[in-house]
């Protein structure tokens, strides 16, 4: 059976990718933020996963407000990035994976998650920035990636409890896959931030730290929030916590937090990174 090794949660702020492309990691603004990542990379490189499943939200590149799947999964041989409004980033395509993708698709439909299956799909910063954080220099081509997009922009968006259950169904699918692949799940986005409106710039550090504490052993506590409550507590884009919950849902009951770091602000966001090893 395929083995789920663990999960990584990280913010996916576009400015991170720009800072890496421009070699700004050691400058005063960025140094502390980037110092949190080498331990995560070390774990990842020592585990050598074959496949990374990435829960992210598409901010309008592939799915704009006019057509917005609640849950979408990629089943393509590769995925391209494209211009998100600040020029086309010249980055290599992301390598896809189709066998496990289709297995997950079948498992999800069997378990009442009626997802959108994408045999072609552009991937935005929600996916490419975390990949580049894990493999600097965009050196992620050797890893097979399954993109899983959760709607976080076009309300109504799935409830935190539903995102968590969705992640759990994907974890079950991986664990039932006939193969010896090593799999890591990632949840990208968050933590608290609001990019526009009257509360633009809103960050809630105590709430972010509470989420990072509870997601380890008591994730169900976080799934009790409504998205409305998340917007209140974490800002309009704080609902990206849903991706962290899907990642946590995919893992087993018992995990060990091997690494955890929080830094603010990066751009408009309380930036968090966590590495959870699956004890199952
Ligand atoms: C920022 C954060 C995000 O999650 C995002 O998708 C875009 C921008 C920011 O803080 O700049
Ligand atoms: Fe975002």
UniProtKB/TrEMBL annotation:
Query: Boundaries of each Extradiol ring-cleavage dioxygenase class III enzyme subunit B domain copy?
Result: 8-270
Q: Which InterPro entries match?
A: Xdiol_dOase_suB (IPR004183)
Q: Which GO terms describe its molecular function?
A: dioxygenase activity
What keywords are annotated for this sequence in UniProt? Dioxygenase, Oxidoreductase
Q: Which domain of life is it from?
A: Bacteria
Matching entries from SUPFAM superfamilies are given as: LigB-like
Tell me the protein's name. Class III extradiol dioxygenase family protein
Can you name the source organism?
Answer: Rhodanobacter aciditrophus
Q: What is the lineage of its organism?
A: Bacteria, Pseudomonadati, Pseudomonadota, Gammaproteobacteria, Lysobacterales
